[in-house]
Amino acid sequence: QKLIRVSTMYILNDFYKALRLFVKTHAELDIDIKLPMLKHHINGHIRFYSTKNLQNLVEKLVEDLKIVERCSWSSDYLSIWLKKELWVSTVMKEILISGRKYGSNDDHKGTVVSVSSDECNDSVTCLRIELLKEAIQNLAKTNGYIIGNDGLNLLVSKKNNPNSSNLVLCGNVVCNVNVKEYKQRKQESVTKMSANRIESKEYPIDIISKLCHASIVYELLSVRHNKVINTECDTSNKDSGIFIMYNYSRLCQVWKAYENGVIENYYESLPDICSVNFGLLTSNEEWILILNHLSMYPLVIQQSVQHLMSASVDVHRLCKFLMEMSSAVSLFYHRHHILSDPIASLLPLMYARLYLVKTSIQVYENVFQLLGIKAVREM
Which of 99, 236, 300, 377 lies 20 to 30 Å from 369 when distance is taken between CA atoms? Predict the structure, then answer.
């Protein structure tokens, strides 16, 4: 009997469990798995280290885990190459079929929780509390929790109470202005940044508002909830929330250009996913985006609330995920030409990359929904 079905492998956590079980069963080892990163130039796609020689496991691992193409042992680590085309097509299909529900699970089905907060004033700390409360509720529902009054009542508060087991402590935000002035300052900054980008003083106010909110959400939720944030210490001109939205909008603009091409009969409609050759996505940038981000997303969702019943939640994991995914998208966008001329020899790769664009957009929008961010498709 095989350890895991290929159809469930799109969630990296499932593959991790199968791999750990395999090594535990055959070598009596607990392993720490390392994902590939562009800067490390790892010769392989997934690896784990061991002081014990595992050369004798190589052949059996390929035999038992059908998603594994090959693996090799080298002094103190085992490198594993996955069957890329099978993995990618499975991930893509799952995202497109699940849509907004991609990443959701029933791990805590039927468990009732409620999330409340202290009475707040007009401080930025209280804004952080409200954003955190909304994100916790969204994450809980995505992991199968029921939001109601007949279960654990979590209280999001800036007031520390060591005797409370249901307190989600929210760290203070050090800021010398109130919420209204803080938002105004953000709006001025975003307006200036946006005007410079389009070389014009005119920019739609609704877009400015959405970008401003995205900037605020990232600034206030990207740090672990019980840590203090000092907005006065950030002297850089970088705005991570805007960077994330900018890379999302890049993908949206590529997709829009393709759809316009279809309307104008320049391109054919996107073929059925079953006929697309995902084996053409061979670059490191494409593989990192698929394996480390699209495949990783369900695991991030699971881990974000794994200790929710102990009043601990990792909303900042979502923010970190968005930032790292956006960096991967930026590399993919800059190093690869997605849309090509409608020449028969070029279309298979273009279609594969368009599916990568489409599924990446879906994952972006799923995270935005959890964090209460409104998407800006055009910047």
Answer: 236
Exposed/middle/buried for residue 264 (C-beta within 10 Å: 0-12, 13-18, 19+): exposed
Query: Could you tell me the residue range of the domain that residue 281 belongs to?
Result: 179-371
Say whether both 194 and 144 belong to one domain.
no
Beta bridge partners of 77: 49, 74
Is 39 a domain residue? yes
Q: Dump the DSSP string for 69-83.
A: EEEEEETTEEEEEE-
**Nearest to 77, CA basis, from 104, 54, 103:** 54
Q: How confident is the model at residue 343 (pLDDT cuts 50, 70, 90)?
A: very high
AA identity, residue 342: P
Calpha distance 327→321 (Å, rounded): 10
- 49: pLDDT confidence band, cut at 50, 70 and 90? confident
Q: How confident is the model at residue 87 (pLDDT cuts 50, 70, 90)?
A: confident
In this predicted model, what pLDDT tens digit does every residue of 29-48 receive, in sequence order?
A: 888 777 666 554 444 578 77
CB under 8 Å to 370, separation ≥6 — which residues?
135, 138, 139, 142, 301, 318
Average pLDDT over residues 310-325: 95
Per the structure, how many domains does the chain have?
3
Asked whether residue 155 falls in the same domain as residue 219, the answer is no
Residue 267 identity: Y
CA–CA gap between residue 102 and residue 99 (Å, rounded): 6
Report yes or no: 117 and 129 within 8 Å, Cβ to Cβ.
yes
What's the burial of 147, exposed, middle or buried (CB within 10 Å: 0-12/13-18/19+)?
middle
